[in-house]
Every structure is written in C-alpha cells, then in structure tokens.
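Working notes for the structural subgroup meeting. M.R. asked for a predicted model of this chain before we commit to crystallization trials. I am recording the input and output together here so anyone reviewing the notebook later can reproduce the run.

Input as submitted:
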Amino acid sequence: MVPTQQGSDEQMGDLNVVKSEPVVVALSEVGEDRWGHHQFPTISALPDGRLFVTYNDTPDRNDAYGQPGPAYVSSDEGATWQKHIPDDPLLAISNSIISEVLRGEYLCVPMSPSLDVERDNIQLPGLACTANAYGQALFYRLNECPERVQEFIRSIPAVRWVPDKAEWRREEVTWDSGSALARTRKSDYVIPRPYIDNRIFRVGDRLFYPDFHLSHLLSDGSMPENFACWCMVSDDNGRSWQRLALIAYDETGELMMSEPSLVQTTGNELACVIRCTHHEQKPMLITWSSDGGEKWEKPVKLHEFGVMPQTLLLGNNVLVISYGRPGVQLLISPDGSARKWLPPIQVADDSCGYTRLLALGDSSFLLAYSDFNWSEEGQQRKAILVRKFNVARG
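Returned structure, recorded in token form:
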C-alpha cells in the first residue's frame, strides 16, 4: 500500500490553505539511494496546455549533466501522468524549465554537456581565482581562454516554440560574457556553460532571469571570492541576454550566493530569494529592487535554511516560496509584498529539497518535489510527486 499525506485545510490569518493529496508522477527502482538519481524535478506548461515534468536520473555532477532524461505529461492538471517523449529531446534535459515568453512563444535554454578539459585538449590560461563551494572551484579569465571556450560560453543551444508554425525550433541564444570567468573543478575537470534553470518572467516587453552559473569580475574589476547572483535581462524575447546589475555578493567570500529566484511583488518591486547553504546549513536570504532590477537592497535573512527556492505570485496577490533541505516547506506572503510572511508549512520530511511551482489559476498551484521514503507494498522507493494547493481569502 502506498502511504499518502492526506489532503487538509489550514486557516492562516485570512487565508484558507487547502492541501490535496500528493500524486505520484514517477517511482524509482526499489532501494534507489544514489544522490542525484530520481531527484530535482521541474514542472512546466506546454503550449498545448498539458503539464510537463522532468527529473534528473544521473549523478549530481557537471560531467554527468546535459543528456535527455525521463519526461511525463498530464492532460488533467496533474491528476494523472503518462511517460512522454517530447518533440525535441533537449526539452527533457533535467534542471531545464520551459517558460512562456512574449507573442505566444515558449523558450527552453537547457543545460548542455560540459567541455571536458583533458579529453578535448583544452589549454587553459593561468588561474585567476578560486572559491570554496562544495569543494574548490577554479576560475579563469574567459577572454584569455581559447576561442572554442569563449564561443561555448557566449552561444548557447535553445529550443523555441513558434506558434505560427506550431513547432519547436532550435536556435542559439547569446549570453553576456563580458568580464566572464570560465569555471572548472579538479573533481570533475569540465567547463559548464550558462543555462536557464528558473522560470523566466516578464515585465512589459522585458524578460528577466537571475543567473549564478556564469561568474564575472565585480564592478570594480576585482575577482570574486565566491558565487554571485546577477540580474539578466532580454529585450529581444530571449534571443540575447545581458547583465543588468549585480543582485547579491558576499564581500567576505564566506557565503555562496546561488540558485536565485526572481518575482515581481504586488508593490511593483522585484524580490530575489537566494540560497547560501553548501556543506554547512546557511540561512536563505532575500533582497528587493524598487527600480526594475538596477539597484538591490542588502540581502537579509528570510529563513534558517533553503535550497533552490522557487517564487510565485498568484493572481489573487498571494506570493508563495517553496524550498527545502531538510524536507520541503512553503512560505506565504499574504499581501504579495515578499516582506510579510506567515509561518512555514511543512510538506515533506525527507527530500532532495529541490522544488518547482506552477500556477493553475488565480488561487491554486502545483508543487513538484521528490520524496526519498515512498513505499509501495512495503518496498521503499524514491518518488517524484506533485501536490495541488489552493490558497483563498476568507
């Protein structure tokens, strides 16, 4: 028998939060306990209205990423799921999300296989700087790297839905590589490239995405001592991306600013939620911009922990954040300001903590996450789950 978390109602101030029972998208083999396998789900809406879920089924390493993996679709708002082979295999690469952009188009800029420094006989320049983030990361000035590496970083494969042709088409997205630093590690001697792993959102005709995958020199030309978060914008519907501003950086070099998630608040501010946890548990931070992303407030603590935070402003002006590790939790800002918060809602106890949110309507959304202790007929498995939440006033 499959254990389920029962649906429930919870009154939180003037909000009524209804949690439906979780729905299984996919189950691992019995006894699967390898880190990275059957984890890190994404959930997106396809152009035809179906919902689309992918997840990772390889080791959590740069030298293993970038290959198409399992994919599932739902035609009934997540109530049931079927295995699916997408029109383009790039859409099924894990950690890569599909976003609706402008003029009815959809865009996916997926994770690519990394360049193998030794196998591809890449001669790197002198080391520029290092950072301590899950081991030592090594950085090199991109403009001193071979042209092959420079082109790899600034021109990224993408897949775009073209509505008048009703088809997915491949293209190359241009990424701002000015003052960029190529990164590798001794543990997996490969060079990753940028990609879009969080939902793109729109303000007018401008697209926004927060990036930390590609490091750059700081504004004063100095070398960063750890990862930083940058506000990226596109004024051509995602065909090219430029750095607008530095969102957050720890000048002490102690905090790893990573996995940022951007959202527009009801106060017409931009809010960015940031992961700082690595080998040690660190608080999740939040910062705001009141001028369209050009200047950002000093980040402050939002919660005691949090990896891969996801943000969503519903049509009823309720703002939701999902995050995890340990477990999975939700935070709700009832006025959508991202400055006032209700107590956390516990969703799951044992998970990779990577979550995804997708709005279904003005007051409802789906949460996608993993569960490490799902059992079927007494046999423990990992599960990829979706769970519906409804948040209504009154």
